[in-house]
Write a structure and sequence with these properties.
With 124 residues, this protein is mainly β. It contains 1 helix and 11 strands. Strands 2, 4, 5, 6, 9, 10 and 11 form a 7-stranded mixed sheet that branches. Strands 1-3-8-7 form a 4-stranded antiparallel sheet, with no helix packed on it.
């Protein structure tokens, strides 16, 4: 079993930056794909970014060039560096993990086995 805990919530003005973290514990050695999702009020959940254990990444078009997903394997922590934030980036951000690779497929489908509780990002 894997536990995921997000941190880094905040409120920023447009153009600002935030870094989200997702600390993983448990059987993390078996997690070969991790990702970030977001959900704004009244909208469907959206896959923002995902990363495979081989370093392959996938981003939704609206964040390309602004967001960067990365993983520190020594700390078992997933990050999402968000620059150039826009009001439309506002939402609850969730971390997810799965035993199998497939960053693009899992980001688009949301097919992840483990999920965190979420952390709020507000851009005004």
């Amino acid at each position: 079993h894997v536990q995921l805990v997000e941190s880094g919530r905040g409120s920023v003005q447009g153009g600002g930056s935030l870094r989200l973290s997702c600390a993983a514990s448990g059987s993390t050695y078996s997690m070969n794909c991790m990702g970030w999702f977001r959900q704004a009020p009244g909208k469907e959940r959206e896959g923002v970014a995902a990363i495979d254990s081989d370093g392959s990444t996938s981003y939704t078009d609206s964040v390309k060039g602004r967001f960067t997903i990365s993983k520190d394997y020594a700390k078992n922590t997933l990050y999402l560096q968000m620059n150039g934030l826009k009001p439309e980036d506002t939402g609850m951000y969730y971390c997810a993990a799965d035993r199998f690779r497939g960053s693009r497929y899992r980001r688009v489908s949301g097919d992840f086995e483990y999920w965190g509780q979420g952390t709020q990002v507000t851009v005004s």
